[in-house]
Fold this sequence. Notes:
Chain A is an alpha/beta fold. Chain A contains nine helices and five strands; from the N terminus they run H-E-H-E-H-E-H-E-H-E-H-H-H-H. Chain A has helices at 4-8, 24-34, 46-55, 75-87, 101-109, 122-144, 161-178, 183-190, 194-203; strands spanning 16-20, 39-43, 60-63, 91-96, 114-117. The longest helix of chain A is centred in the middle third of the chain and has 23 residues, at 122-144. The radius of gyration of chain A is 18 Å and the shape is globular. Residues 1-10 of chain A have low confidence and may be disordered. Chain B is α+β, with helices and mostly antiparallel strands. Chain B has nine helices and eleven strands. In chain B, strands 6-8-9-11-10 form a five-stranded mixed sheet. The mean pLDDT of chain B is 87. The chains are: A alpha/beta, B alpha+beta. The A-B interface holds A 23-26, 28-33, 36, 44-48, 66, 68-73, 75, 95, 97-98, 118-123 and B 154, 157-158, 160-162, 164-165, 167-173, 175-176, 179, 188-189, 192, 195-197, 199-200, 203, 237-239, 266, 269-271, 273-274, 315-319.
Amino acid sequence: MMDDNQMAGRTETSHNVLIVEDDTALRKQVCFAVEKHYTVYEAQNRREAVRALKNADMSVAILDLGLPPASNTPDEGLKIIDYIAENTETKILVLTGQDSEDVTAASIRRGVFDYIAKPVNMEKVIYAIERAILFRESEQRISEDGVKQIYVSAKLGDGLQSIREEAERKLIRKVLLENNYNIYKSAKIIGIRRENLYYFIKKFGWKIMRNAV
Amino acid sequence: MPFKDNPAVLVCAVAAACAAAVCAVCYLRVLRTSRFARVILELSDLNERVQYDAAAFLFEIPVYLKKIRVRDFAYNVCHGGASFKKELTGADVFIIKSYDDGDLRVSFTLVPSFSRGALKTLYALVLEHIFLIIRQDMLMKIRTLSDTFTNVLKVQVFVQHDIKNIAQFIQTSYYNLQNLKDEADELRYVRYLKDSYSPLMLKANKIINTLNLRPSDKQPTMMTIKIEDVLQQLISLYHLQCEVRGKGSVYANEGTIFLIFDNLVKNMYDKYLEEELELSIEIVDEAGKIRVCAFDTGSPIADIEKIFEPFYSTKSGGSGIGLFQVRAHASKLGGTVTARNVENGVIFEITLPKSHPPDG
């Protein structure tokens, strides 16, 4: 874990951290702990979280799964994970009281970076943010070299077709988003013809929306 | 012989004897049937007396079966790995009725003293009656157990969620206190603590009330509370766009008033997250009472009167405690809570007596 001197030496505040937590008292405390190092955004439900994700590039999202209107189920949190995975490069740290094996598995399958069960020592959360940012920066560097990383969950025994489709879908979506749905540029980056890219857009049921996610 | 000279008298006598015999047989049959009917009614009473407990019922029935000369009986009731049964003492002619849905198995066997004609039907009737009693008792018990288990689980999930958040709040506060660098940091932290105080109190109050479920009989601390302030505070807490019109005060316990209106606003908030709608609240100061009408333009609520029943919820994972508590606490104060679907939305109406401090 990094000490104070090491912390002070970094340019942490250039990173945005979104804290999604419906418990106002807890959210305020987590904000106080995190905003010493990063620029913090708050959300207390999915609607606010999606709005914040559309308005700023979040490096990390600290996400509670049990959110209203279904605070006693992980449904809302999982929907936010799906949104983030589909539309952003944000690393997700789940910080939740929903610690059943099913929920943990569902979150990990969706590609969350870390899963932390409440209650936890805040130092572990800060440390997890550090690691998430480190991973994100490394991925961005790798990306600059023309290598894209995508997260695909595969069930062995189901054949390769579904894995191939999932990988195609995620890779194309990622490139399109990064290039603001510029078809010419995206097709060139992926290395396919524009007609083929249009085919995939139609196949996956996307709508071309510039400046929108 | 007097009949020799008058065959008609003989015929009449024979006919009268036959009629008397038939009447006697009928009378005996009626007596027998009424004995069976009486036993059937007594078995129903017995079931009520043992509070619909199938095991206790079966323990008591021999006395009743003896009255209709049942020679023997047997039963087998199995549910969830547990069973209670009695077997026949010997091989005999018997009638049996059974039920098996995979989870619950019930069978009841009766050995009648006669197994032919009308008597057989009467015994079959008694068998059917006892069998139905056992099956209904068991199904009722299973349903009650299942409901209780589900409801306990709902409360547990709700409380667990909030208690984990409070534990996390303590952990994070401790971390923050340990890492305060200077006076500016301390002042900033105090501001955050101030922001945390009100929602935390509300949460703690909610947990205690959920665990108690019903309003406490203890004498609470009373004060004059402005309803518009309570509503504005809650609306701000939930980041809601909701106009509050009117003013009104009540003299009551602050925790109770917050609990009532927090549940009301939380209910509006949950609905607001699910659909696009407009919200407004109107406070009407009437003679001796305050009436609060919360209106939303959302979709109508199905089975609207059921929403105040404990553990009834239309939301996924909903505990079904919130609105039940609103009504329970408002009633305790002498108020009312109703909900109704209107043409373009839903209205929740809460009335509370104003009450007055002891000095006037």
